[in-house]
Amino acid sequence: MRVVTVGAGMMGLCTAMLLARDGHEVTVLERDAEGPPDPATAFDGWERRGVNQFRLAHLFLSRFRQLAESELPDLPGALEAGGALRYNVVANIPDEMKGGSQPGDDRFDLITGRRATVEAATARLAESTPGVSIRRGAPVEGLVTGTSDRPGVPHVTGVRLESGEQVPADLVVDAGGRRSPLPRWLAGIGARAAEEELEDCGFVYYGRHFRSGDGEMPVMIGPLKQDWGSIGVLTLPADNGTWSVTLTASSNDPALRALRDPEKWTAVARLLPLTAHWIDAVPIEPGVVSMSKIEDRIRDLAPGDEPVVTGVVTVADAWACTNPSLGRGASVGLMHAVALRDHLRKSPGDPWELARDWARTTRETVEPWYRTTLRYDRHRLREIDAVIDGTTYRTDDEFWSLNHGLEGSALADGDMIRAVLDMAMVLRHPDDVLGDDGLRSRLRGLQSEGADGEPTGGPTRADLLAAIA
């Protein structure tokens, strides 16, 4: 099958390699003209104007590592050769907190790095993969159609570049990420609009990267992701002796927009007792990298099992994207790409059935992760609103109370730590973890003993406002 993949980001490249290794002929079309430099230096100068989150903090979770090892077995080595870090979160937690090492803790291994480093290494591997052809500086303007078997449902037979060149395909894979222009392309061929749910994710990110003097990561004395009242912090290990610290806030909190100022950012970061030592290093960037107006969006090309188009499918962020602070994008995206490869192995030749069945597969395999991320974020934003108003957030939603209780108890119990990480690392879906009767019983016991592990000593709302005043 001739496949055109639109977008040479991480998931476009991984999808291309998966399909090419299954015997398909894959052409990757990328808008940005500049190719990947040496992975170890990619962060310093590589510009990817088509990826708005390119210089923000990234973490590639354990599920991504698992899938890479099983489905693209030469990818982990290529990443590590470029300086990516193999890191185990549990191994870096003090024994008194985690109850010592346990069988199965190796499932929390991850291979991570800054987005530029990881993408550069992945791109170099893709370029050497038989069956993959990457064309950079080749922006796609629209879709090309041919004969359709279904009245009113266009059938896509390729893409048209801005240069006017047409690139034929038996299947077009949209891996264009958050900014995918697919709705405009569909309108251009007279297709019905895809069904979309779209809203502002509600978070703003203020991040900085740091470099170690000795190549070592800071000591971890708290979770990689922590919430302290109306602010959150992400401390993420990366490649080549670097890491990132990102402060997160609600987009409805104008007082914290001052975090764009490096001095005020530093003043607030110093208030966070479990992570303040992560900024005791040399910052790589002179300022604070911020990102806002991020959308939660999901796109269905076959609402009600009635495809609006055939011959084109979406994967990863082109299908759905959420708040990136949970770090699930690459893991869920690679799950989606593997599912597409498997789907094409068994899919009938009829384009209508392929489109309909792919929508069903997407709903079954990856949409549950989108839904639970959205659910978590909405509760967290309401909690922030309550802190700003000086009240306590209450909800009857058991999902939030269990999740919140589990995250708090993780500071006092090794089993709770591992349960939280199973969800955080996209190894087990939250519904499966939170629905475990044994875990719920253990959680109730810890809470009745008062050993809920809630962190203390963090900044109050007044402390935050004073620090940035």
Characterization of this structure:
The protein has 469 residues and is α+β, with helices and mostly antiparallel strands. The chain folds into three domains: 1-199 and 295-367, FAD/NAD(P)-binding domain; 203-293, Alpha-Beta Plaits; 394-462, no CATH class. Helices cover 36% and strands 20% of the residues. The protein contains 16 helices and 19 strands. The strands form five sheets. Strands 11, 12, 13, 14, 15 and 16 form a six-stranded antiparallel beta sheet that branches. A five-stranded parallel beta sheet has the order 5-2-1-9-18, covered by helices on one side. Strands 6-7-8 form a three-stranded antiparallel beta sheet, with helices on one face. Helix 1 packs parallel to helix 9, helix 4 packs across helix 6 and helix 12 (398-409) crosses helix 15. The N and C termini lie far apart (60 Å).
